[in-house]
Amino acid sequence: MDIDCRLSVPQTEFLRRDEDPLLIWQAGVGSGKTFTCSLYLIKHMLEGHRMVAGCLTHSALMKTLFSQCFDLAWKFGLNPVINKQDKTLKVGTGITYGYSNEAPNDVLGLSNIYGLVLDEASRCCEAFYNNLSDRLRGEGLDAPHKRLITSPCTEPGSEWYAELKRKHPESIIRATLYSNPFVSLEYIKELEDRYGIGSQLYRQQVLGEDIASDYLNAIVRATDFVDKENSRFSYLTKPLYYGVDLAGSGRDLTASALINETGLLNIKTLHKIDTIAQKNMIIEDFEVDNIQGGALDAGGLGVGVYDNIKHNPRVNIEAVNFAQAPSKDMYLNIRSEMYCEAAQVIKDGFYIDTSANKELVEELRNTQVFVNEKNKLQIIAKEDIRKRIGRSPDRADALVLAIHAMLHPRTNSSAAAVGNKVLAALGYV
Questions:
Q1: Maximum CA pair distance of the chain?
Q2: How far apart are CA 241 and CA 68, in angstroms?
């Protein structure tokens, strides 16, 4: 059986260090990342191990990683079996279970796993990585075996990956296009011409270097956040404003934000609670913090919560449906208008403690704005953000609602009515 299985120096090192608990292989285009992790998975399945593989998308899992594993195992005469419905690959007595970053919670419940391969790790969300890592409880396993294979991240949301590399520099294996002696000179020349030698894209895609960046059309970018020393932030500034994004069907968090005009004071999150509990939470927040005004997401189940508090004289809160019409015609809907307004407030010096609010920052940096076919400013759909970071941007929604309440204060009509009755009883009106 004539099989061409020559390996480059980085590929050889990656497979030789089989006993290392963690390896992070960061490499440029054409360095053989998928080929290498396919060999790693085949080896361990032949040893009878239960493995788990994660990819950025379902398509990448089935059409790239599993397809490469299957083709290699078939050439080796190992009779591999793919189950497309269950997303499993069997070689010998071992098996690999496949999952994608598009559904990071699908892996929950899997157990007794020996090792993990995560492809394009830097582009996957932290929740997906953590969920996969938590499956590594194989019998007799002294330490989890994790293999992260990735090209450099060109998008925000990979802080967890950068932190992992910082903590484990000894685990990093780097490779470039030039590390692979088996690619043609024509292919190398094509990539050099495409990216331009010395450019940032060339350094990322060919040399495999980290180049920090944001989406070009991100509503808020990393450089837009002001540090505390350069802000006018104060916890003592009054009045206070409040935004709450209520958990509804298919969502798992209720998020509330408390702000003043200088910055974010607090973000709270709760797992899904019923309408009465959500109503009581809002009333308590208004009473304890003496909040001037607020806004809540009245889409879905939020309507029921608002109906329970709208006549409460102590709660001055506005119901906002993100799909409703904007106040300015340049926006598609009020969600787009509110996010653009909030982004400008942040750029103007509104302070957010980025180290204490990493999830919020990730949600904001992954929210993009564009001009649609009707020439209106539009924010990308929540589902698109969920696919990138593995969750709904509930914290960002809560903050945007709070900033909306601050920028567009409203009179509590219920409170005003009660006040008029009191004044009338006293003979003043």
A1: 103
A2: 54
Q: Which two tokens stand for residue 407?
A: 């920028």
State mean pLDDT over 338-360: 95
Q: State the angle between helix axes of 334-347 and 394-407 in degrees (0 to 180), rounded to the nearest 10.
A: 80
Judge contact between 79 and 93, C-beta under 8 A: no
What gap in Å lies between CA 107 and CA 96, rounded to an integer? Answer: 12
Which residues partner with 150 through β-bridges? 26
Quick one: which of 162, 191, 154, 161 has its CA closest to 176?
191
Count H helices, E strands: the chain? 15, 15
Q: Tell me what pLDDT residue 422 has.
A: 44
- pLDDT at residue 329 in the model: 93
The pTM for the full model equals: 0.62
Nearest to 370 by CA among 340, 414, 412: 340
pLDDT of residue 1: 35
- Distance CA(402)–CA(408), nearest Å, equals 10
The two structure tokens encoding residue 159: 């802080």
Among 3.40.605.10, 3.40.50.300, 3.40.50.1000, 3.20.20.80, what is the CATH number of 9-205?
3.40.50.300
